Amino acid sequence: MLKVKVPEELPMGAHRYKTYLSEWAEKHDRSGAVVHDKLQIFIAPGAEPSVLMESYSHELVHIIGRVFCVHLDEREVDSLAEGLTQFLRDGLGIEFDWSNIETIKANLPIAVDKLPTRRSPISSAEAKQAARAAIAKRTAGTT
Ligand SMILES: [Zn+2]
User: Fold this and answer.
1) Among 38, 43, 59, 102, which has the highest number of CB atoms less than 10 A from its own CB?
2) 93 within 8 A of 1, measured Cβ to Cβ
3) What is the mean pLDDT of residues 97-107?
């Protein structure tokens, strides 16, 4: 496997998103979160390497959607992130190195709590509701 350092700052469009390993995300059983208004990505640090990579890919797809105005629901984001992760890991033999990324205790907006956790199974009805909520969150600044 080729180790590639996760960049502290991710350029996307006219913006630069800063990445943190976030104990907050782990405590709330979330794999990750992105706060667009603050240009911050939070990834839960305790997961297996493939889960960390998929979580980062997931937030990356959210950012691409937001910055380039592609309207994706949560399930579409998950699917694209899984495919991207598989390509990076199995297609290119890449493994992420998180040594550049700061670990913090972050306080995210309370609205993020209302999104489903990625580790819990959700029904189709819940998925649709979560997708609608995620789209609504874009205007509020978090996904
Ligand atoms: Zn998401």
Assistant:
1) 43
2) yes
3) 86
Question: Quick one: DSSP state of residue 89?
Answer: I
Please answer whether residues 59 and 30 qualify as being in contact, where contact means their C-beta atoms are separated by less than 8 angstroms: no
CB 7 within 8 A of CB 19: yes
Distance 103 CA to ligand 1 centre (A): 20
Token code pair at residue 49:
């390497």
Q: How many angstroms separate the alpha carbon of residue 54 from the centre of ligand 1?
A: 11
CA of 69 to the centre of ligand 1 (A): 16
Bridge partner residues of 18 (DSSP): 9, 40
Query: CB of 98 within 8 A of CB of 132?
Result: no
Q: How far is the CA of 28 from the centre of ligand 1 (A)?
A: 14
pLDDT, tens digit, for every residue of 16-59?
999 999 887 777 778 899 999 999 999 999 889 999 999 999 99
DSSP 69: T
Q: What is the pTM of this model?
A: 0.75
CB 7 within 8 A of CB 17: no
Beta-carbon-side half-sphere exposure of residue 130 (alpha carbons within 13 Å) = 21
